[in-house]
Amino acid sequence: MGSLIGDIASAHRWLPFRNDSGETIYAWTVCASAGSITIDGKVGLRLTKPTADWRPFYPVSGPFDVEAGGEGLCTLDIGKPILIGSTNSALDTPGRIFGVAPGSFSMSINGQGFRSCGVRTPEGFLLAYQYAYHLLAVKGHGAIYNTRNVATGVQVSALSYGWGSDGKTAGSSSDDHFAVCYDSGLGGAGPLSATWFGGEAKG
């Protein structure tokens, strides 16, 4: 188990980041991106605490603590084993799905996006992986509901959102965009079906 941290670190692709959270980002912390920044000529990320805003994936910091305003490395890789610096024992059950706790660097069983492998290193880091979300995007003014996995017919965990012609807010214009995402950790990977109500829908 002693070499696990090195094995995990070498298996991921790493991006530079600047800690814009106002406090220390400890090793193997799940963060949120607040935008891009250039660090030593390379494109990097500005990392902060996760919020209640939904995100399709989260950057995870590397094996070293980074003080506020400091720079470090993070990974956006999904589907690969990663270590999570959480002491929440509720995450120790193999297969447990969990995610961020908005407004903090803590992890919660009420969240989604990560699945526990049920293994901890001697240092207390949890072995887990971040799983992918599947997306269906349509154009038109209306709403999406009855989202199901085509293969199983099972209604899946889904979230819909929309934005208007300004690219930011959901309005009443005919060019509103709506997208549905569902996590493969709960609904199972495969084609997505949904019912579209109102307007013209284009995939």
Layout of secondary structure:
Blueprint: H1 4-11, E1 15-19, E2 32-39, E3 42-48, E4 60-61, E5 71-75, E6 81-84, E7 97-100, E8 107-108, E9 114-120, E10 126-130, E11 133-139, E12 143-149, E13 158-163, E14 177-183, H2 184-187, E15 192-197
Parallel strand pairs: 1-3
Antiparallel strand pairs: 1-5, 2-3, 4-5, 6-10, 7-8, 7-9, 9-10, 11-14, 12-15, 13-14
Describe the model:
This protein is mainly beta and 203 residues long. The protein has 2 domains: 4-130, no CATH class; 133-197, no CATH class. The chain is built from 2 helices and 15 strands. It has a 5-stranded mixed beta sheet, with no helix packed on it. Strand 2 and strand 3 form a beta hairpin. The longest helix is centred in the first third of the chain and has 8 residues, at 4-11. It starts with a helix and ends in a 6-residue tail after the last strand. The model is unreliable at 135-142, 157-189 and 197-203 (pLDDT under 50).
Number of helices: 2
Order of helices and strands: HEEEEEEEEEEEEEEHE
**Helix proportion:** under 10%
Q: Name the average pLDDT.
A: 76
Please indicate the percent range of residues in DSSP E strands (runs of 2 or more): 35-45%
**Order of strands across the biggest sheet?**
2-3-1-5-4
Please state the overall shape, judged from the principal axes of the Cα atoms: globular
Q: What structural category do the secondary elements indicate?
A: mainly beta
Note the main attributes of this structure:
203 residues, mainly beta, five-stranded mixed β-sheet, five-stranded antiparallel β-sheet, 6% helix, globular
